[in-house]
Amino acid sequence: MNLKMLILLLVASTASAQHPRDFVTDGALSVLSIQNGNAVNAIIETIYEESRSEYADASYLNMFLAQLFEDPTAVDLSQEFLLAVEPTVLADGQRPSGMFGPMPHLLVVCKAKEGRALVPLGSLLKSSEKVDGWFVASGADAISIRTKKELSPIFAQLPDAQIGNVIRFGPLWRQLGPIAQMMGGMFIGSMNKPGIDGVISKETRMQSKAARGAFQVATAWCGKVETISVGLNIENFELTSIIEVEMKEADGVTVDNDSLMEMASYFVDNSLQYGMSKELTLKLFALQQSMIGQQDQVLPLELLEGIRFMAENSGEYVVGMNLDSTNGLAISALNDVSDQGAYLKGVSEQVTTSVAVLAEELFINLSASDAPFSWNISMKGTSAQEQQVMDSIVHKGDQLRFKKQGSDRVAMLFGPKSWRAFAAPHASSLSQVMRPHANSIAIDLACSIDARKLIAGFLHVANQETDEPMYVASSPSARNSLLFGSTNTGMFIELKSNLLGLAKLAFELNNGN
Predict the structure, then answer these.
(1) What is the pLDDT of residues 419-444, one digit of tens each?
(2) Last residue of a domain, one of 127, 146, 170
(3) Which of 38, 41, 45, 84 has the most CB atoms around its CB within 10 Å?
(4) What angle do CA 344, 347, 352 make, to 5 degrees?
(5) Whether residue 166 is found in the same domain as residue 200
(6) Rg of the chain's alpha carbons, rounded to an integer?
(7) Model confidence over 450-504: pLDDT tens digits?
(8) Beta strand pairing status for 479-486 and 490-498?
């Protein structure tokens, strides 16, 4: 795809857009809008061309439209495409079918290319009509064209994006929720199958109990949601996805990200950086605690106790990680604490009691060093080749260290003694993720990942046990980010991904560069 043509398509997307939105009814439960699908297809095509993918010529929006039309190429994607979910209204005297009443149906509004005809698939779209050049198709047996000039209220919540979607989840869940609960209950019930001895094992009962608990939490959360909106934009080949969830009765939040922002500003350029609130840390720890005794338990009890201590005695914290040939595995963290001395003493006790399990489970050997709250680190392999791999992760002389940072923080360092984990305050990759939302979102989790740098580190380790090493170039960037937090109305999620950088990285990996 010629980049000049791609730019023209993007510029034209606003200037030439028509607005067929007045066909969507006032009671619409969901609306999906695609603005200038030609530009979206062109962007995707360019990305796949850079990755030298066999799917480079695929038209992904046409693949989606093929579920609705016999010939998806007849849809004019230079115009706005709308897909709505609307409640089905029964005609006078018509009796509802099924135990849950009439199901919602689809409404599609689009334009056909000049000289082309649109033929909807009868399984989803049963009736259609052409109005003022617009093709309107419905999943209802008989289509009813809306004639109001004012737009449906649902459009007030539709994100202004290349691809936008809004779901009135509350009304939708009132109808579909009972179906989901029935199906979920049946599935969980089917998990309690007895073994060949005719007895349901303890592990099976625990897994079923955990699944039932998780399902109850999920359905309870769904019952509290009013609206979900999603906006997708691609600019300079970077995909930005924003998801907002509006709750029926949202709790007010206090926005104070100053400490997270300040701690993030000290990081050097790690391949992975993230920051987390105390509230989310405790929720994740509670989830891990609920898995104790199950087959999928992730960590031994001794390590969980150490995590429990840090979760309960830390405030907000940030973590940075890097893996490369210079420093091996290097991890740094900053924690807000209320009592530095008590925290350091408690951490020291937890590390001391975990020495044996670290050696047994993770092959990490710790021995006390001369400095306080500091341990020498080594890894022990079972063969010369395995030892070579471990030596590329943990270098000779590496240490685990905890130390005071300022008056109310504790730093954790895992790596070479000479490694400078922190720098003067600056715009680190993590702080750049948080900055646009620092005054409006109570941030629970923010993360920045340089996929190219991270994969280069893993390849360095993997190359220790192969005669055909793989490498990737140091550029271009393939950085991605995630931000999750709370607002006064509900929840906010932002994901950013450098699609072109990831495509080029995929090409290098697939071709053994």
Answers:
(1) 888 999 999 999 999 999 999 999 99
(2) 170
(3) 84
(4) 125
(5) no
(6) 28
(7) 999 999 999 999 888 888 888 898 888 899 999 999 999 999 999 999 999 998 9
(8) antiparallel
For residues 194 and 62, state if they share a domain: no
Contact 456, 322 (CB under 8 A): no
The answer to whether residue 138 sits within a structural domain is yes
Round to whole Å and give the CA distance between 192 and 209: 10
Query: What H or E segment, with its residue span, contains residue 278?
Result: helix 278-290
pLDDT for residue 131: 93
Residue tagged 């979607």 (tokens): 165
Torsion angle of C-alpha atoms 283, 285, 286, 292, degrees rounded to 10: 160
**E-strand stretches of 236-363:** 238-247, 272-276, 317-324, 328-336
Mean pLDDT, the chain, integer: 88
pLDDT band, very low/low/confident/very high, at 375 (cuts 50, 70, 90): very high
Kind and range of the H or E element at 228? strand 225-235
Quick check: is 234 in a domain? no
141: left (phi over 0), alpha (psi -120 to 50) or beta: alpha
- Check whether residue 145 and residue 208 sit in a common domain: no
The answer to whether residues 464 and 502 belong to one domain is yes
Averaged pLDDT for residues 118-125: 90
Q: Are 265 and 417 in contact (CB under 8 A)?
A: no
Distance CA 238, CA 55 (A): 20
Give residue for tokens 């990755």.
51
How many Å apart are CA 73 and CA 432, to the nearest integer? Answer: 41
Q: How many domains does the chain have?
A: 3
- 395 contacts 416 by C-beta, under 8 angstroms: yes
Same domain, 7 and 28: yes
DSSP 440-507: T-EEEEEEEEEHHHHHHHHHHHHGGG-SS-----S-S--EEEEEEEE-SSEEEEEEEEEHHHHHHHHH
- Nearest alpha carbon to residue 431 among 197, 258, 243, 265: 265
Q: What is the domain extent for residue 404?
A: 250-510
User: Per residue in 195-253, pLDDT tens?
Assistant: 788 788 887 887 888 788 888 989 999 999 999 999 999 998 899 999 999 999 978 88
Is position 241 within any domain?
Answer: no
Contact in structure between 444 and 277 (CB atoms under 8 Å): yes
Q: Do residues 19 and 68 share a domain?
A: yes
**Contact of 184 with 219, CB cutoff 8 Å:** yes
Residue 26: name the closest of 186, 126, 148 by CA. Answer: 148
286 and 266 housed in the same domain: yes
Asked if the structure places residue 320 within a domain, the reply is yes
The domain boundary, picked from 188, 209, 225, lies at 225
Assess whether 164 and 177 both reside in one domain. no
Does this model's pTM top 0.90? My answer is no
Residue 490 to residues 151, 240, 253, Cα–Cα distance (Å): 25, 20, 9
